[in-house]
Fold these 3 entries.
Entry 1:
Amino acid sequence: MQDLFDKLNSFQRRAVETDEKYVALRASVGSGKTTVIVYRVLYLHLVKKSL
């Protein structure tokens, strides 16, 4: 599973793996906001089992 998250940069990874309930994403066009949202849902489902 670690290979899955290797595609994220350090800022994206922090947003995906945070323990905060809510995450606010502010970034420019093409910076990977949608990717972070998708990976966050995947992370919560696979790692946290909270969905």
Note: The chain has one domain: 2-48.
Entry 2:
Amino acid sequence: MIHLICNEQQGETFRMKVTRPMFDFIETMWQQPTADEMSVLNGVRIAV
């Protein structure tokens, strides 16, 4: 089972707040993982 913890909840792995401008900025740099990266990391591609 996967548990998602929102930024506001600051769970045990919380390190920093991510603001909307920070998220929007880094989103412009996101690149899909290559097939090799997916294979090595046992990645699963899901449709959104």
Note: The two ends are 20 Å apart (CA to CA).
Entry 3:
Amino acid sequence: MSVQSLKHLLIDTDVDFDDYMAISYLLKHHAVKVEGITVTGVGAVHLSHGAENISNYLTLFDDPEIARIPVVAGFQRPMLYSNTFPFETRQAADHHYDAEFPRKNPNPTRADTLAFLRETLEKSDHKFTVLMIGGGTTWGHLFQHAETDNALKNLLLRKVERIVMMGGNLLSEYVKPGAAGNIIDALGDAPYYTNQVAEWNIFLDPLAAQYVFDGGIPVQLVALNACNQIPLTQNFLYQLSRISNPVAQFLTQVLQSSTIAPGIGHYLYFWDPLAAVAITDPQFLQFTRYSLKVEQALNEEQDTSGKLLPNSAGAPVDVALGASPGFVTSLYLYTIAGNSVGATVENMAAAMEQSADK
């Protein structure tokens, strides 16, 4: 894996707990150069908190170059409807799960997401991979603008080689085994949505997801079908806690927070980190191509908005339906420990065996 070519990356995030996990992995990986982080307020975090949190989080790496990565605030509302996470989830994200940042980042954030993305693409002499781990709102707006701006459309097609998006699920009526939606799971004892078929990142802005799928750029969708095969476990948390660097200790604090800890080993999965691994090592995921549309209609009594619909008239999307749990988690831990170069299949297999023995 040490011979991997450098991947130039743009990240769009809603700054949830697993976003910190995913971004940490990518910033610690030797073959990734993150060149911008856009923050969406359509998801876990409120927008102003999200931009500040990500900016200050970058100081964990004690690297001036990482601290200078542009952090840009995006949109507060989805392109369609007004679906939102529970208050408690958003409050915990706003307070970065009570985990401390080393200091305030002196580098200012920006608030002109679409201008920043266009400017970055125009000025670069290389192509980008885009990671979307906070829904599709930011890039949905960009693709919407491109429908009436041929220069922007051509720029996107020339400079963006791949989009990796964590989101969605294919139900058992379309694939075996299927993955159910996860909206109700997050709503506690008093659910205020009726949707049982969608995944949060798509549900929050189904129109934006459709714009992303239809944008003409290859999309790899890391769906719940694959993520559900890698639960976050106490054993994983234990191994992470034993890594003695500031990034690993910050992530440990996040996962041990009062909001997140109850889900470890129960209902939390390797959502966004699996999408990050798909950036560097897609061979550890199993993708199948589908032509997809996203259900747009909202029915409050029996809602199916955000449901993924295989349809011959839909856009081609490579959907991750499976993953290799042991290799993925071992690669993740190797990388967080600062040893992504040494994360060979042989070393990871040995680590997996050692972990199983313990």
Note: Residues 221 and 329 are 19 Å apart (CA to CA).
